[in-house]
Amino acid sequence: MHHGADAYASFQDSTAENVLLALALLQSYHERDRQPRKPVRILSCGSIFVVPAFRRVFIGDKEIVLTKQEFDLLCLLMGNRGLIFSHEQILRNVWGEEYTDADSNVLWCQMRRLREKLSPEPDVKDYIKTVRGIGYRFEPTDPQ
After folding, report:
1. Most buried residue among 33, 61, 66, 139 by CB atoms closer than 10 A?
2. Model pTM?
C-alpha cells in the first residue's frame, strides 16, 4: 500500500486532454500494483473523444451529455467505423431484441437528437452517414 502523493500530474486547459491524462495515471497505478489491468478503450475521431467505460463524450474540450440510447448508438457506430448497420440491427443492439424495423421512428428520433447534440462542431454531425433504404454508418470522410 502506498501513502502520500505517488505522482504529480500537470493538468491541461482541455477537458479531453485531462481525461486522457487521468486514464493514463490510473493505468500506471494498476501496472505498478500488479493488479489485473483492464485496458481503457477510448474511441476518437477528429475532435470527438468517447470513453465507453465511463460513459463520457467530449467534443474538443467540452463534455456533451447523451441519453443512454444516444450514447450506445454513438458507440455502436463509432466503434465499427465504416460498417453499415441496418435499422433493425441498430434497434436490436441499442434498444433490445423486442425492437424491430417496425420501430424505425424511435431510431430516427434518436438519430436526429444525437446529430443535434454533435452539431456544435460543423464536421462532426456529418460523420454519421445515412445509407438510404438501409441504415447508418460512421464515416469521418465521404469516400465518394
Report:
1. 66
2. 0.71
| Three-class secondary structure of residue 56 per DSSP | strand
CA distance 52 to 55: 5
**Level-2 CATH architecture, domain 15-138:** Orthogonal Bundle (1.10)
Total residues belonging to the chain:
144
Beta strands in the chain (DSSP E): 43-45, 48-51, 56-59, 62-64, 85-86, 128-131, 135-138
Q: Is the pLDDT score of 50 beyond 60?
A: yes
Strands 135-138 and 85-86: antiparallel
Binned at pLDDT 50, 70 and 90, residue 135 comes out as very high
Q: Residue 12: which of 3, 4, 22 has the closest Cα? A: 22
**Cβ within 8 Å of residue 132, ≥6 positions away:** none
Which residue, chain included where needed, has cell 500530474? 9
The answer for residues whose C-beta is within 8 angstroms of residue 95's C-beta and 6 or more apart is 69, 103, 106
CA distance 125 to 107: 16
